[in-house]
Structure formats: structure tokens, C-alpha cells
UniProtKB/TrEMBL annotation:
Compartments (UniProt record): Cell membrane; Membrane
Species lineage: Eukaryota, Metazoa, Chordata, Craniata, Vertebrata
Protein purpose: Putative odorant or sperm cell receptor.
Domain of life: Eukaryota
Gene Ontology, cellular component aspect: plasma membrane
UniProtKB keywords: Cell membrane, Disulfide bond, G-protein coupled receptor, Membrane, Olfaction, Receptor, Sensory transduction, Transducer, Transmembrane, Transmembrane helix
Protein name per its UniProtKB record: Olfactory receptor
Stretches assigned to coiled coil: none
Organism: Muntiacus muntjak (Barking deer)
Transmembrane annotation, as ranges: 24-45, 57-76, 96-118, 138-160, 201-223
Length: 241
């Protein structure tokens, strides 16, 4: 017998139910959120207004800052506002949107970090061909692929969650709509779904991490015959990454 979704909204318990601690949470995370927006905004404005920062490295850094601000905005404003409420609720649709945007922008950031590592590898190990390899067209295509990959990842996550019935408890023991707390509320066996969700995110994180390690291993291998000053100069270009 197939169960239908009877839940139209969820109750978010947040980080704490204590009124005093909720005010402390509000102040701390409000300051952190403003700091995140300010820091990313400064990077975005600096790169956009400086002609000297037109290389692919800063192109990727610009997008990383944009998506980091979006990533924070997908969670923080709602969480900060909920800290002032006695009972924080979120509709089912808003919850799904939050899950999608959280994973979408988070995945984008991971992919851009990989692209920045690839960019540094080409710049350091193939300096004579750097301008012909990392053209504006190539960078644009790579960014389009990150959007496509992130969209596929987030859509898969949402599809798996929407395939589950929610017909009973609607209290999420968390400060935002996340996959694992939602699985606990499903009125069905979530073992297979949980494996698929973890495999999806785990594969992206693992492959991305291995690519980052490989890129810097290759960079260090390329620099083995350089002078100490040359290695220092080359590696200094990786600071932004």
C-alpha cells in the first residue's frame, strides 16, 4: 500500500530551545553571516574593478565568492530569523527548495575548487601553453559544466527525497532542512535511499578531493628541479586557492 504525503510543513527545533541561548545564536550567526557577505563582496568588487585581475584564476575566484555568498544565503537568513521565533516552521515546498539550493551551491563550490587546482597545474607545469589552454571560452565551458553537474547532483537528491512518503511526525531536530533529518521522518524504509544519497554526495567529495591532491602532487613534481626561489614564487600563486 502506497502512503501519501500528509505533511505540509515542518517544525525546526534549531540549535537550542532556550530563549537566552537563541538570542546568543541570533547575534553570533548574524555577525558571521554579515562577515561572510562582506568578505565575498569585497573579493567580487575587487576582481570586477581591477584590470590586473583578469586571469582565469581570478575568474574562478570571482565565481567561488559569488556562490559562497549564495550558499550561505540558502541557510543563514532563515536560521537567523528562526532564532527570534518561539516556534519556527517551514513549508514542505520551502524545505525542498532549501535542500536543493544548499546542495546546488555547495556542489558548485567544490567543482570550482577543482577547476582552480587544474588552472594552477596548467599555469605552473605548462606555462608556455597556459594562455592558449585556459582561454575565456574554455573557462566559460568549464563553468557551464559545473552548473550542469551541480544541477544533476541536486536534482538527484531532491528526487530521492520526494519519492519518500511523509505522513506522521513533522519535527526536524535540526536548524535547517537537511537530508538526514528528513529521512528520519519518512514513513517508509529509507535504507536504500540513504545509501543512494550518501553515495551521491560521497562520490563527488571523494573524487574532487582526489583530483585536488593529484593536481598538487603533479605541481610539486613539476617544481622539483626548480630553485627554492622559483618554487616559492610558483606556489605563491596558489594562495587564493
Amino acid at each position: 500500500m502506497q502512503l501519501k504525503n500528509n505533511v505540509t510543513e515542518f517544525v525546526l527545533l534549531g540549535l537550542t530551545q532556550d530563549p537566552v541561548r537563541k538570542k546568543i545564536v541570533f547575534v553570533i550567526f548574524f555577525i558571521f553571516y554579515l562577515g561572510t557577505l562582506l568578505g565575498n563582496s569585497l573579493i567580487i568588487v575587487t576582481i570586477k574593478t581591477s584590470r590586473a585581475l583578469g586571469s582565469p584564476m581570478y575568474f574562478f575566484l570571482f565565481h567561488l565568492s559569488v556562490y559562497d555568498a549564495c550558499f550561505s544565503t540558502s541557510i543563514a537568513p532563515r536560521m537567523i530569523a528562526d532564532a527570534l521565533l518561539k516556534n519556527a516552521t517551514i513549508s514542505f515546498s520551502e524545505c525542498m527548495i532549501q535542500v536543493f539550493t544548499f546542495h546546488f551551491f555547495g556542489c558548485l563550490e567544490i567543482f570550482i575548487l577543482v577547476l582552480m587546482a587544474v588552472d594552477r597545474y596548467v599555469a605552473i607545469c605548462k606555462p608556455l601553453h597556459y594562455t592558449t589552454i585556459m582561454t575565456h571560452r574554455v573557462c566559460g565551458v568549464l563553468m557551464s559544466l559545473t552548473w550542469l553537474g551541480s544541477c544533476v547532483h541536486s536534482s538527484a537528491q531532491i528526487f530521492l527525497v520526494l519519492s519518500l512518503p511523509f505522513c506522521g511526525p513533522n519535527i526536524i531536530d535540526h536548524y535547517f532542512c537537511d537530508l538526514q533529518p528528513l529521512l528520519k521522518l519518512a514513513c517508509a524504509d529509507t535504507y536504500v535511499t540513504n545509501i543512494l544519497l550518501v553515495s551521491n554526495s560521497g562520490a563527488i567529495c571523494t573524487v574532487s578531493f582526489l583530483m585536488l591532491v593529484l593536481s598538487y602532487a603533479l605541481i610539486l613534481h613539476c617544481l622539483r628541479n626548480h630553485s627554492a626561489e622559483g618554487r616559492k614564487k610558483a606556489l605563491s600563486t596558489c594562495i587564493s586557492h
